[in-house]
Amino acid sequence: MRAVSRLTAGVVKETAPGERRVALVPVVIGRLRAAGVGVAIETGAGAAAWFADEAYAAQDALVLSRAELYAAADVLLSVRRPDPEAVGWLRPGQAVVGMLAPLTDPGYARRLADLGVTAISLDGLPRTLSRAQTMDALSSQASIAGYKAVVLAAALYGRYFPMLITAAGTERPAKVLVLGVGVAGLQAIGTARRLGAVVRAYDVRPAAKAEAESVGATFLSLSSVAPAAGDGGYARALTPEEAEAQRRELADHVAGHDIVVTTAQVPGRRPPQLVTEEAVKAMRAGSVIVDLAASELGGNVHGSRAGETVVSDSGVTIVGADNLPATMPAAASNSYARNITALLLHMLVDGALVVDPTDEIQAGVVVTHGGAVIHPGTARLLGAGQADGGER
Ligand code: NAD
User: Which of 79, 212, 231, 255 is the most buried (most CB within 10 A)?
Assistant: First the structure.
């Protein structure tokens, strides 16, 4: 028996430069259909991730032009924010689900609220809730970034990762240092280990030690920095004195490694600088650093710039990583599609999308609804005392 579709989910073609992911892949359409959701895609939405229109059509998805899609969809599904030009096509009561990053641009949320659009952002998910784990797009994408960072480093490194004993002699294994042992860092450690490297890892959160060791790294403890666990499993920002002491002590360790992968982030702050110019200079020529924290806000490594690979005067290659998940579009889209599908199914009641801000998951992800910005953090950024009644 086929469920009657009450809701149409429309998958947009991503328009951000270099973005190759797609919000939904054909294999998850059956789950949505079973819940009464019909699917439409914008022509070519999955092409950059090698999901052809025909593969979606084979799952009974409609393939529409952009204008047709915006007109037909009750809920638009995206990875990044939908094309700014298309925002004007949105209509009251329509919903947009994606990684909308409302905290970095609350004005965008305000615009969607003014249009009467319900904005749902996966990056606000309460990640430590176990029932939300299938929806955790930040983790699924960070994990891909951690993997790809090591693969990139291996490709740029002029030597082997594993120890090799051949008739021509012995190659020692690469020494890899991972700074920041969150989701990306753990995947970086595991990947480097699988390639045969000797891996050390460091984080300011004491809980990271056991996690790093469980995937095969030796944990580095610094004597100059006190444990710095913050709220919700994240790190707290270090004081300027602690940060300086950390950089000094880390420099010696950095110099002793061939590959450094940095992933350190503190919510709501610029990424901490961990690797100084002097530390880069002290590394051997041919060493490689991949800075996963590189963004327009800065990065973990002196001289790294998002989207750029530079070779220092001393011969150290520094990669400022920029949206690595988009460089593995099929895998990244597969996991993102499962995350967004799980969230959508969570919010469906009898085939209709029902906003319930008393639900812990929805309280994190629903940014705008009924003409108001209801996400507390976003509403706060838009200004205390905003009279839209949105603060909870
Ligand atoms: P993140 O991207 O915010 O930061 C990456 C890592 O950088 C973190 O481990 C952080 O401690 C570290 N860091 C910050 N400042 C540092 C410094 N000065 N020096 C060294 N390291 C520094 O982290 P994330 O990957 O989003 O994960 C954050 C936390 O959330 C972790 O504890 C993770 O285990 C947890 N988490 C839990 C779940 C779950 O329970 N289901 C899901 C996802 C993440």
Answer: 79
